[in-house]
């Protein structure tokens, strides 16, 4: 069995690609990590480079595919490190090339999501919507209990707004500049089932953004479904 830690390399992740090439490559990575239960478990817990892939490279593919389609005049380059951006986009469609620096963030309750993935790995199932309770630590071991419940449309909408707003707030009051974009990825297939409440969420998040000091030329919300893209004004 192949070691899942070898499925990704920094060199492969940071290769310059067109939006189509990047989207196709991302699909191959998802396929690699679906080959075995061991690989799935590694991927779900965002081990190794999977963390960067899921938080920065996948969102870059989602964003650029919807913005630029099959253009071969746009080049995407994920950037690893601690600089104030996670990717570069070179747009050559105009008279002069434009370089855009993109910062990514994820609208998710990180700790609860991690515990859900642990429960899924250990028991083969985990409620997406139930409240998560646990005892213990990573070192001593977790005892995890997740309610098996459903949420109403209003509850789903409220949680989606909260998660996206918190993600935006995490990037507020920081210096970036006019060459920077912000992109928030959220799981619209979970929080916006059947696209119900989409406009309510967008309006609420747009309103919340107005109260935040975000130093970005553009702010986008992209859905993990690959079908949702909002530019917040």
Sum this structure up briefly.
The protein has two domains: 4-109 and 153-232, no CATH class; 110-146, no CATH class.
How does the SSE layout of this entry go?
Layout lengths: L9 H4 L5 H14 L4 H8 L5 H19 L5 E5 L8 E5 L6 E9 L3 H14 L8 E6 L3 E6 L6 H17 L4 E13 L1 H4 L6 H13 L3 E10 L5 E4 L1
Parallel strand pairs: 3-6, 6-7
Antiparallel strand pairs: 1-2, 2-3, 4-5, 7-8
Beta-strand level of the residues, as a percent range?
15-25%
N-to-C CA distance: 49 Å
Total number of distinct structural domains: 2
Number of strands: 8
Main β sheet profile: 6 strands, mixed
Widest β-sheet, arrangement of strands: 1-2-3-6-7-8
What proportion of the residues is helical, as a percent range?
25-40%
Oligomeric state of the chains in view = single chain
Order of helices and strands: HHHHEEEHEEHEHHEE
Give start-end ranges of low-pLDDT stretches. Answer: none
Question: What is the average per-residue confidence, as pLDDT, rounded to a whole number?
Answer: 91
- Rg is 18 Å
Note down, in words, how this protein is organized.
The protein has 8 helices and 8 strands. The protein is α/β, with parallel strands linked by helices and 233 residues long. The chain has a 6-stranded mixed β-sheet with strand order 1-2-3-6-7-8, with helices on both faces. It has a two-stranded antiparallel ribbon with strand order 4-5. It has 2 domains: 4-109 and 153-232, no CATH class; 110-146, no CATH class.
Label this structure with key terms.
single chain; 233 residues; alpha/beta; two-stranded antiparallel ribbon; 8 strands; 40% helix
């Amino acid at each position: 069995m192949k070691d899942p830690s070898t499925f990704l390399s920094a060199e492969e992740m940071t290769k310059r690609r067109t939006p189509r090439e990047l989207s196709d490559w991302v699909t191959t990575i998802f396929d690699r990590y679906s080959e075995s239960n061991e690989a799935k478990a590694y991927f779900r817990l965002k081990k190794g480079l999977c963390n960067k892939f899921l938080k920065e490279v996948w969102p870059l593919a989602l964003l650029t595919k919807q913005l630029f389609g099959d253009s071969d005049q746009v080049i995407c380059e994920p950037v690893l490190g601690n600089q104030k951006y996670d990717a570069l986009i070179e747009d050559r469609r105009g008279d002069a090339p434009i370089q855009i620096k993109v910062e990514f963030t994820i609208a998710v309750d990180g700790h609860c999501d991690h515990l859900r993935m642990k429960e899924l790995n250990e028991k083969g199932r985990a409620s997406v919507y139930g409240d998560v309770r646990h005892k213990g630590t990573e070192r001593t071991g977790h005892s995890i209990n997740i309610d098996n419940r459903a949420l109403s449309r209003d509850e789903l909408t409220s949680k989606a707004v909260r998660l996206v707003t918190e993600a935006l707030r995490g990037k507020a009051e920081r210096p970036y500049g006019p060459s920077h974009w912000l992109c928030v990825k959220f799981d619209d297939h979970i929080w916006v089932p059947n696209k119900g409440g989409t406009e309510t969420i967008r309006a609420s998040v747009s309103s919340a953004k107005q109260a935040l000091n975000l130093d970005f030329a553009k702010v986008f919300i992209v859905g993990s479904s690959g079908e949702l893209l909002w530019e917040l004004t």
